[in-house]
Structure formats: structure tokens, C-alpha cells
């Protein structure tokens, strides 16, 4: 489960820091990629040399070293999880208070990945009301707590506060990734963005799709462990690492790409705004401006969603979108059945903050059993989570 996982290990000043060496070795053995950030206090307990040898990566301590700047923002974006083990009482207090006086805390404050802490301290400190409040603040902020052990402490006393053993942290991580990655081993195809249909070498028929909704879905599917291929029409949007992007321009190119990929997919989400018509002929040269009107003859493009619906097999979940301006619900349900989709996501251009270009959308998800889930206007990234939840539900119902 940890094969290829990117783990950012933060080590703070505690006697338990010596266990970080064993933990690093176990993580590497499991196939994880490990980068280490340690505080200066942690160096008193374990050397950066041991850790860089075990992790096969340089160990970072300072915001700037030898005239170069450690990019704390990118570290937090690189990682699948930031694990602070051991997390000392001091670092926990600083995390709770938003203090940023070392690299590890700067990484924590800018991390976009989940953060887990494995506290380590003597029992009296562990039970102190200030520590309890700090831990509550940290977990209320969405961070994860790896339970402490009970046993012999650095003081010689027996009690609560020992850092979890490296083997137990490994088990915790395996469980974390299996729970948070329900789509591990599943292949997903997502389309996003517009298509451009050429009229002549300089002009085309296109639409206002930015790709934001489709990319948010592709990224959410990847976050849940799926191998995602994104067939992306012409946009400037950036896509997070780890997603295979196939860039296309026309509806015909999008059709070819989807038709090729679909047979090996468990999930397909057609979010692109595909042109319904394309010029019958594309002029070789730029069409010259004249006084009289001109006519461009258009022919229907192939309907990708409908074609995939005809080829769909048991075990494949097909999701379509419906972008409507009138009779929204009726049209969406018609698309669900006529295209043999499992789910249809309706968005209407009549709703404020919904549809093309916005960071938000307002959607309703319809399923084949007549179910209907309505969502208020929310960021597309949040709605992508709801859409993926519905996909997982549908996938499980088929098995
Ligand atoms: O990209 P954004 O700026 O974030 O905007 C998001 C969006 C508005 C483009 C998106 O939420 C959306 O609604 N996408 C579908 C747009 C659309 O073409 O809707 P439609 O009702 O015309 O098409 C119905 C379904 O058929 C869609 O799943 C579409 O991808 C699919 N289709 C359409 C035509 C065609 N030739 N082949 C298709 O597969």
C-alpha cells in the first residue's frame, strides 16, 4: 500500500527521535519515497547523516542553506502525507499557535496534504491541560493524531506519552492509505474543456469551457487512488502531477481518444463541452471578408457519451453532464436514459455562479434508480468530491 507514496517525515527534538531512523528504514523498505525535515533540536538526538543515508535524500533543517532557499510550499504539495514523528510538546504548542520559526513549521503551515502527528513526551506533559488544549486545536484543524503508547518513559517513569513504535506507525499509514484510497487500482477516464472545430486556418467554432470542473474531478479521482487519464480540450488550465493528460483539439480527436481508453476503464466522466456540430468543410485558406453574408454548413459530431454508453459493460460506471438553459431536470433525465449513463450531473446556465469559467458550480446528480442529490452553489473542487462519492457508491452497488 505504501509503494510509491510520498511521505514527508518531520522530526522534532525528543528522545524518541532515534526511532525516526527505524521508521525511515521501514518506509523505504515498503517502497515509499521519504523526504525528511528536522528541527535543530532533533539533531541533538539523531544525525542528519544517518537519516539522509537511510532516506537516500538530503535532510532539510533550515529555510535557507548555503545561499539556497528550501521551498517549503512545494514540499507540502509534493507529499501524499506529512508525518511528524516524534512531535514534541514544544512543536505541538507551536503548531496550535501558528508559530513559524523553523522550516518544519513553515512546511506544516503551508502543507496542502494531510498531516499526521505521533506525539512523544513524558506523561505529566502529555496530561497537562495546555497540551490537551493544543492537541484539540490541532485535531480540530483537521490534523490526524497517531495514538501514543503506554510504557517506560525517558524520565524512568511508566505511563502514557511514548511515541508509537515505528511498526505501529507503519500499520497506521497502511490503514490510512487503504481508507482514503478506495479507488486504488481503478482506471478512470475524464474529459474536460472545450473542443475547437476549425472553419479555416484562423477561425473555429468553440465554447467557454475553462476545464475547471473536469480537472477538479480528475484530481479528486486521483486523490482517491484512481489511475486517471484526462482527455483535455484546448485550455490553459494546469493539472496536478500524476494524471496522464492527452491534449486534443476537436470533437473527433476527443472521440478517438475516449474510444481507445474506455474499454480498460472502470470509471468514465464526460465533463467536456464537446461541439455538437463541426463544419462540413474546412477551408484551406483564410476565408476572405466579403460584403454579403456567408454560410457555413455544419454536420453533427459523434456523441462520445452515447457511444460509450452503448459499449458499457458491467463494472463500468459512466457519468455524463447536462448543461441546460431550460427544462433542466427533464432534459437531464432524458440524457441519463438515452445515453445509457449511470449518473448525470446537471448544471444550469440560469443559476448564478454556475457553468462555464466560474470556480463554483451548482449541480444536481441524477441516478438510474430515480435518485436525485441537490447541491447549493459551492466551489467546483468541493462538488468534485460529491460527484466522486456518488461514483464510488454506484461502483459498489454494481459489485
Ligand atoms: O469547464 P468549466 O468552465 O469548468 O465548465 C464546466 C462545464 C459547464 C463545461 C461542465 O460542468 C459541463 O456542463 N459539461 C458538459 C457540457 C455539455 O456539453 O453539455 P451537454 O448537455 O451539451 O452534453 C451532454 C453530455 O454529452 C456531456 O457529458 C457531454 O460531454 C457529452 N457530449 C456532448 C456532445 C458530444 N458530441 N459528445 C459528448 O460526449
**Contiguous runs where pLDDT drops below 50 for at least 5 residues:** none
Number of strands: 23
Give me the number of helical elements: 13
Mean pLDDT: 94
CATH superfamily of the largest domain: CoaB-like
CATH architecture of the largest domain: 3-Layer(aba) Sandwich
Percent strand: 15-25%
Ions, cofactors and other ligands present here are: ligand PMT
**Helix amount, in percent?**
25-40%
* Spatial order of strands in the largest sheet: 14-13-10-15-18-19-21-22
The largest sheet is: 8 strands, mixed
* CATH class division of the largest domain: Alpha Beta
> What is the terminal-to-terminal distance?
22 Å
Total discrete domains: 2
Instruction: Give the class from helix and strand content and strand pairing.
Output: alpha/beta
In terms of quaternary structure, the protein is single chain
**Rg over CA atoms:** 26 Å
**What sort of overall outline do the alpha carbons produce when their principal axes are compared?**
elongated
CATH topology of the largest domain: Rossmann fold
